[in-house]
Amino acid sequence: MAHTILLLVVLLLSSTTTISTSKRTQPKFSAIFYFGDSVLDTGNNNYIPTLAVGNHAPYGRNFPGRKPTGRFSNGRLVPDLLNEKLQLKEFSPPFLEKDLSNNDIMTGVNFASAGSGFEDQTSRLSNTLPMSKQVNLFKEYLLRLRNIVGEKEASRIIENSLIFISSGTNDFTRYYRSLKRKKMDIGEYQDSVLRIAQASVKELFSLGGRQFCLAGLPPFGCTPIQITLSGDPDRACVDEQNRDAQAYNSKLEKLLPALQGSLHGSKIVYLDAYQAFKEILDNPTKYGFIEITRGCCGTGLREVGLLCNALSPICRNESSFVFYDAVHPTERVYRITTDYILKNAIPQFS
Ligand SMILES: *[C@@H]1O[C@H](CO)[C@@H](O)[C@H](O)[C@H]1NC(C)=O
């Protein structure tokens, strides 16, 4: 009965809106789930005992209500923007948030954790949620979803959802600093990270996921902090790191068709995050950016997380900066990236 009334209300609402937006169709995905690091984390780290947090000023300065939420940027992130463009909702709620509504649960939540990587070890120092823990949280999520909509509808929602994964940068930036580098060369390390990435997709598939988008690594050698650590007075991107990122990406792109073939009924799409981002860095003025090697927060050379705070000086116009802090892009970059995803990755899902 309640369902019938709800359906009627939905029909009435949609018949009044079809006049103005006749092109409006059903959302392409029933829900979207996000797994990964700070590029996607919309606030999970606020609920775990870690210092890797962005829930203080000047983060969120251009977020609705000028509110710091844990998002490492001045405004919304790709998960928020993609959810909105794909007609699900305006934001991507962190799963660890206490008061999630039933509707939040039904249209997808976010499991990403800033500072994390595919490897458990990457999260150990920062005490964040590695991919394995994020996948475990997805199991908890499934129990909640089944409680709300029942077993059958839950399976339908998961089957028609999109699972978006973007991680790995923190694994590699840790690799460069760690002793691991002596024991394992970069090629071997890339392979070991890729094994974890594949295992994560397989496990999410076994839990009912069918449609996956896997992002490659961005050109992280161009982040202000990596440039600063390299000590280059001309502040050029760290070529070695960018080359390593590209090598990892081509391995990832090559293995996905085989992975898709081995998981019957799956669709696994590669997202070239490197190209999406490099296009902006190579043509900043085309996109209206003036500063590409310093963040907007503080000196822009090394401040991130707790070091980017209310006492930090802040740039006058964040829209002309590619980076908001020494690691993370501004909302304007995320908007351009979202358009890239909508153009290049989403159409590959039928
Ligand atoms: C801020 O920068 C953007 C992008 O370059 C530009 O379009 C806008 O006019 C600037 N705003 C101000 C107040 O200067």
UniProtKB/TrEMBL annotation:
InterPro entries according to UniProt: GDSL, GDSL_lipolytic_enzyme, Lipase_GDSL_AS, SGNH_hydro_sf, SGNH_plant_lipase-like
Assigned keywords, A-Z: Signal
BP term (GO), one: lipid metabolic process
Keyword Signal: yes
Gene3D superfamilies for the chain: SGNH hydrolase
Pfam families associated with the record: Lipase_GDSL (PF00657)
GO molecular function: lipase activity
Keyword Chloroplast carried by entry: no
Signal peptide bounds: 1-22
SUPFAM superfamilies, A to Z: SGNH hydrolase
Similarity comment text for this entry: Belongs to the 'GDSL' lipolytic enzyme family.
Name of the protein described by the UniProt record: Uncharacterized protein
Organism of provenance: Oryza rufipogon (Brownbeard rice)
